[in-house]
TrEMBL record:
Highest taxon listed in the record's lineage: Bacteria
Name under which the protein is recorded: Uncharacterized protein
Length: 136
């Protein structure tokens, strides 16, 4: 049965992952992506636009894991020496949504997860995010 996760990453890292069709967490560590399974759902929360940059505090992407196993990736266009562990991921069209716009609709568990690189959340909270992020 598919599970639901929130990953926390700066927006520019999320954009790179979406462009490459992968998901990664905790700076590309292997353990977080090993815990995922094909069919799991992932949403990203971006506290900033870039590392040390302007505050953003938005949910910025949603996708579904499409690969059976993690793989090591070292061919990032903007960071050719960066090695990371990733899973293939199919991203759906989505519009960023500010945390403040939906915070009251999310559980305490999900709000607390926004301080952690990756956390499993409820399907109910993931549905709240999916509805809020659906482009109009």
């Amino acid at each position: 049965m598919a599970r639901f996760f929130i990953g926390v990453a700066e927006h520019d890292y999320v954009q790179a992952a979406v462009a490459e069709g992968v998901c990664l967490f905790a700076g590309g560590q292997r353990a977080p992506v090993e815990s995922l399974e094909k069919g799991d759902n992932v949403a990203y929360f971006s506290p900033h636009l870039s590392h040390g940059g302007t505050a953003l505090n938005c949910f910025t992407a949603m996708g579904k894991v499409t690969s059976e196993t993690p793989e090591e990736k070292s061919d990032w266009p903007d960071h050719p020496k960066f090695k990371s562990w990733v899973r293939r991921c199919s991203y759906r069209p989505s519009a960023p949504i500010a945390l403040g716009d939906i915070e009251d609709d999310l559980s305490d568990q999900t709000r607390a997860a926004l301080d952690t690189a990756i956390s499993e959340i409820s399907g109910t909270d993931f549905s709240v995010l999916a509805k809020a992020m659906t482009p109009q």
